UniProtKB/TrEMBL annotation:
Record protein name field: LysR family transcriptional regulator
Keyword Transcription: yes
Gene Ontology MF terms: DNA-binding transcription factor activity; transcription cis-regulatory region binding
Keyword terms of this UniProt record: DNA-binding, Transcription, Transcription regulation
Keyword set includes Transit peptide: no
Organism whose genome encodes this protein: Thiogranum longum
Family: Belongs to the LysR transcriptional regulatory family.
């Protein structure tokens, strides 16, 4: 506490994030650690299911998720938009179409994330709500693998727009104009109710809210 009063925040900060948050959380953490060099940060990147297991076991200070869990007692604070977009290779027949129906989009071979992924859960729910089947061409275990498979012409997909940031080959992927898209979501920072946050965790929480992403 004395160290805190002196502005010398020292100690550990353990964060678990879902895979898509890896496109922006590490750089925020970098800025934070430069500002507070005494912080020893660890960042665990995993899918939603694994992140929720860690949350239930109370292993980390903070979690960054695409949606707070419904069945765990948590504090959650939205801090950033997380639009999900429909993707295809640039030379796809639907690339220049406007206002594509979800039904038409659902006919395309689809590249889906692995079981346990939050992105997959949102996609499944969307198709279920519209009474549509996903025409699954392939299941892939990461956003990167999905992007490369889209570029390779294996199918279409739905990913967070954050997954396209800093993508050197982004021009080979296009965002389709599908009705109801982008799916508007947010990023949440989450922690178990009753967890006594360290001063470092609280400072990072404030920092997340104040940062220009
Ligand atoms: P995922 O999570 O990396 O497990 O797909 C992303 C999300 O929940 O939005």
């Amino acid at each position: 506490m004395v160290a805190d009063l002196q502005g010398l925040k020292k100690g550990k900060l353990r964060i678990t994030i879902v895979t898509t948050a890896k496109y922006f959380v590490p750089s925020l953490l970098g800025t934070f650690c430069k500002r507070f060099p005494g912080v020893e940060a660890s960042l665990n990147v995993t899918n939603r299911e694994q992140a929720l297991i860690r949350l239930e076991e109370n292993l980390d200070d903070l979690y960054v998720l695409g949606q707070p869990p419904e069945d765990l007692h948590v504090e959650s604070q939205p801090f950033l938009d997380n639009p999900l977009v429909a993707l295809a290779p640039v030379d796809h027949p639907l690339a220049d179409e406007k206002n594509i129906t979800l039904e038409r989009f659902s006919e395309e071979p689809f590249l889906v994330r692995e079981a346990g992924s939050g992105t997959r859960k949102v996609v499944k729910r969307l198709f279920d709500e519209h009474g549509l089947e996903l025409n699954v061409r392939m299941e892939l275990g990461s956003n990167e693998a999905i992007k490369q498979a889209v570029i390779g012409g294996l199918g279409v997909s739905i990913l967070s727009r954050h997954a396209l940031h800093h993508e050197p080959r982004a021009t080979k992927i296009c965002i389709l104009d599908v009705q109801g898209f982008p799916i508007l979501r947010q990023w949440y920072v989450v922690y178990p109710v009753g967890r006594q946050l360290t001063i470092i965790a609280r400072t990072f929480l404030e920092f997340l809210h104040q940062s220009e992403h």
